[in-house]
Design goal:
It contains 4 helices and no strands. The protein starts with a helix and ends with a helix. The protein is mostly helical. The chain has one domain. It has helices spanning about 5-25, 30-50, 60-80, 80-90.
């Protein structure tokens, strides 16, 4: 089995684990941290293995890593400030 296949299997396992965690109905910081961590890991795998950014200029690769990090931080901010976000985005 090659690197691409192992990476794909890991992505599938992480996705299924995330789906199982979501189905537990338990919200809170542990779930938010697990989701944020999965975003970083899965993003890094996709960036390196499938987008083949290891061959690209380092600045391009860093931009994508920063994007994955920002998405992960946004998940954590949503967990911490959900009431503020709800007020800001509500039409009522």
């Amino acid at each position: 089995m090659g690197t691409a296949e192992r990476t794909w299997l890991l992505l599938v396992v992480l996705t299924l684990a995330g789906a199982l965690l979501a189905e537990t109905g338990h919200a809170g910081w542990p779930l938010a941290l697990a989701v944020a961590g999965a975003i970083v890991v899965k993003g890094g795998l996709v960036i390196d293995q499938y987008m083949e950014m290891t061959r690209a200029r380092a600045s391009f690769r860093r931009i994508l890593y920063v994007f994955a990090g920002i998405v992960s931080v946004m998940v954590l901010l949503t967990q911490g400030f959900s009431d503020v976000i709800e007020r800001l985005t509500s039409i009522y």
